[in-house]
Amino acid sequence: MGCYDCCMKCLGGVPYCSLVATLLCFSGIALFCGCGHQALTETERLIERYFARNLQDYSTLAYLIQYFQYVIYFLASFFFLYCIVLLAEGFYTTSATKQTFGEFRSTLCGRCLSSTFILITYLLVVVWLLVFAFSALPVYFFYNMDTTCHTITVLTEENPASINQLCIDARQYGLLPWNALPGKACGMTLSTVCTTREFRLTYDLYIATFAGAGITLLALIHCCLQLAVRRVDLKEERRQEKDQRKSYELYGRLQKDIGGTMRSPYAPHISDSLPPD
Q1: Are residues 105 and 114 in contact, defined by beta-carbon separation less than 8 angstroms?
Q2: pLDDT tens for each residue of 227-277
Q3: Distance CA 199, CA 141 (A)
Q4: Average pLDDT, the chain
């Protein structure tokens, strides 16, 4: 076997669909976890500096932020291991690998593992839909805040007296309790907040987190569809093997009935070709 044939055989054993899904999942999770962790830290700084004066007012929020950061650590570890397992399963079920190591997925253990992967991936898609929707909430909050600041900038030139009526109340979004003071930012104070580095950085980080959640959801849907297609292909292969086995059994039965040699029914008998006595 030449070098070219060896390279083509190796490339033929690469599960490209599984590889694309794994890369998408890795990039999405890295974007979601990295940016989400830093965005939560910056959010705590913004609340502490501009929306709350007492530590007790945002102590619950600080605890929730710390809890979500631990959840992010778990998600990063879980998806890293799960994507590696899915990629390994994809490598093992390619045609080139099956020719070398045999039909693992045709065994009972292989079918159970394939069904388990489909079920787990489907549940992850459902859960990640909720995560995707939840990650849109901080983007919505900061979008409203940025829009209000833009309105304040416009009204400063036209009607400066009305800008103090424009406020962003963190208590309305559940970030702070209702007895927190000041709990909101209005007028020029809000405009000053929007021009700070912390606000712009946090806003961009939440957008990146939302994009990472979307990429991860796309990767999980791709994995689920790919596993389902493999399952259908497995059933088709099993059906073809069953039909082929029946054909072999019928062939052997006919061979046994005829006497051990299969020949065409139109071929002349040996007795017909012998000369008469």
Answers
A1: yes
A2: 777 777 666 666 776 777 777 777 677 777 666 554 544 445 444 544 554
A3: 12
A4: 79
Q: How far apart are CA 24 and CA 212, in angstroms?
A: 9
Residue identified by tokens 């959840």 is 71
Please give the Cα distance from 176 to 46 (Å, whole number): 12
* Residue type at 191 in one-letter notation: S
Look at residues 70, 265, 30, 53 and name the one whose alpha carbon lies nearest to residue 179. 53
Please report, as a single letter, which amino acid is at residue 82: Y
Number of neighbouring beta carbons within 10 Å of residue 142: 23
Tokens of 182: 């000041």
DSSP state of 185: E
**DSSP-based three-state secondary structure for 2:** coil
Report residue 52: phi and psi, to 5°. Answer: -140, 140
pTM: 0.77
> Could you report the per-residue pLDDT of 105-135, keeping only the tens digit for each?
445 566 677 778 888 888 999 999 999 999 9
3-state secondary structure of 150: helix
Burial class of 152 by CB neighbour count within 10 A (0 to 12, 13 to 18, 19+): buried
Per DSSP, the residues of 161-173 read: GGGGG-EEEGGGG
- Alpha-carbon 151 to chain mean position: 38
Classify residue 5 as exposed, middle or buried by CB count within 10 Å of its CB (0-12, 13-18, 19+): exposed
Burial of 80 (0-12, 13-18, 19+ CB in 10 A): middle
* Distance, CA of 105 to CA of 123 (rounded, Å): 22
What count of other Cβ atoms lies within 10 Å of the Cβ of residue 20? 14
Is residue 45 a contact partner of residue 176, using CB atoms and an 8 Å limit? no
